[in-house]
Amino acid sequence: MNKKEFAKYEARAQIFKALAHPARLRIMDELALHQERCVCDLTAIIGSDMSTVSRHLSVLKNAGLVGVEKRGQMVFYRSTVCCLAGFSECVEKILASNAAEQRAVLN
């Protein structure tokens, strides 16, 4: 693999790393369902303190997955990508297939 190709895969890996946490996946699902959410709403949904949720949002923002807009004292986040729904559906199919295979082995 040459340097350019490696850099492309490294950039992809950084996005996967940003998504590699249950709370961040939940945030992305929430932002896909609603156009935007304030940090306070996401804090309640995730069930973590505001600093933890803000750290998760920072990771997603740095990966280019969310955008931010400040309105007065409130900070709102929105998804900048629409393709994750298809990816999530693919992951769910893999999980279902894996579960079916495990059940078949156990029976």
TrEMBL record:
The organism sits in which domain of life? Bacteria
Q: Which UniProt keywords apply?
A: DNA-binding, Transcription, Transcription regulation
Entries under CDD domains matching the protein:
HTH_ARSR
Q: Which PROSITE patterns match?
A: HTH_ARSR_2
Q: Which SMART domains match?
A: HTH_ARSR (SM00418)
Q: Which GO terms describe its molecular function?
A: DNA binding; DNA-binding transcription factor activity
Which residues does the UniProt record annotate as the domain HTH arsR-type? 4-99
Q: Which NCBIfam families match?
A: HTH_metalloreg (NF033788)
What's this protein's name? Putative HTH-type transcriptional regulator
Species this protein is from: Novipirellula artificiosorum
